[in-house]
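We treat protein structure as text, and this decision shapes the records that our systems exchange. The remainder of this section carries one protein's record, kept here as part of the documentation:
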Amino acid sequence: MKFQVIAPEKLNNSTITLPTSKSISNRLLMLNALSYSPYEIRNLSDSDDTRVMLNVLNANSNVFDVGAAGTSMRFLTAFLSKIVGEWTLTGSDRMKERPIGILVDALTKLGAKIDYLEKEGYPPLKIWGSALKGDTLELPGNISSQYITALLLIAPTIEDGLTIKLTGDIISKPYIALTLALMAEFGVKGFWKNDTIVIPEANYQPKQMTVEADWSAASYWYEIIALNPGMEVTLKGLKRNSLQGDSQVSEIFKPLGVKTKFSQRGVILTNIGNPNKSFKYNFVNQPDLAQTVVVTCCLMNIPFEFTGLQSLKIKETDRIAALIKELSKMGYTLTTNNVDTLAWKGEKTDVTPNTEITIDTYKDHRMAMAFAPAACRYANLLINEPGVVSKSYPNYWDDLALAGIKTEKRSLGQ
């Protein structure tokens, strides 16, 4: 299936109830399990990724398929390695292409027994859970924060705790800080100084927790506001002092003409105009915002140079390659060093206004959501496999409709 996305000349001012954070939800599910908590987590995300985690934790089975949920794959690999039993952990075809060797090697050093069932260094995995013993692990700082978080979450339950030394540049620091802050809520205080994180052996203490709204989901509304002068949107449930690194979106979109006003209900976004003539930014701490900002800048004709994108190549798809290919359909020529940068110098081929443009999503929720607002510039925009948004923002298309952006179902053959 595909959607044709249709935007009116003038969008509606709207009040949107955002989904809650899957990053927080999935960490809390792990902490609830590790603390043997009797409490249910309030306001838990209804995203696919969180449903997968919840299903595994409540399952009466020893074989688990996490589909495309990368967080679940990484967190559960560490979690199951310390739960006595024999476990099989698998996922989608794309998941089997996403490396996990660094995490498996680290767990093996702690005494875990894990085998690869197919390709060395990649899922699926056979895990024999047992007691683990603490050690000092040295890990590259430029790996996915999900590996580091997986180890941190189980660290207090390991004999003698755990010390992690990160080498080189450390990426996605806010996600590590988020993990440590949530662990502290459950009574375990870690120590992070420079490149070293120390977690003592300790018992987690159960705590009633409520999940806040998702700042990553808010980014698509920042994009819509940036593209529509005079529009105003209220996003409910966002906190000024959020634990989420993607709350930085409020600062990132200032140069793109979007003002953020905090209120008791959440935030109010308005377009105040006067965007920058060009834009440079390092996304090393907010990689999940990159797609949104790249598409926004192109649609606003703002040349850019973005760095810190190294983790995008191992996400749901190679997001750098996907952005280059899909934006070329709109006439934008982007360049990359094939490692961590993406740039647009303002080069564009004219596209006839009514040309049908079909965006492939590559089973990546953020591709669908970042490109949908392009309907504000292109009258005949189609999104393939729009259902992928359920991974993090199940009500995305319904929320767009509140602003006046409609969708019409089309079969893939049309």
Q: What stands out?
A: The first helix runs from residue 22 to 34. The radius of gyration is 21 Å. The chain has two domains: 2-19+213-410, 22-199. Residues 22-199 form a domain with the UDP-n-acetylglucosamine1-carboxyvinyl-transferase; Chain fold (CATH 3.65.10.10).
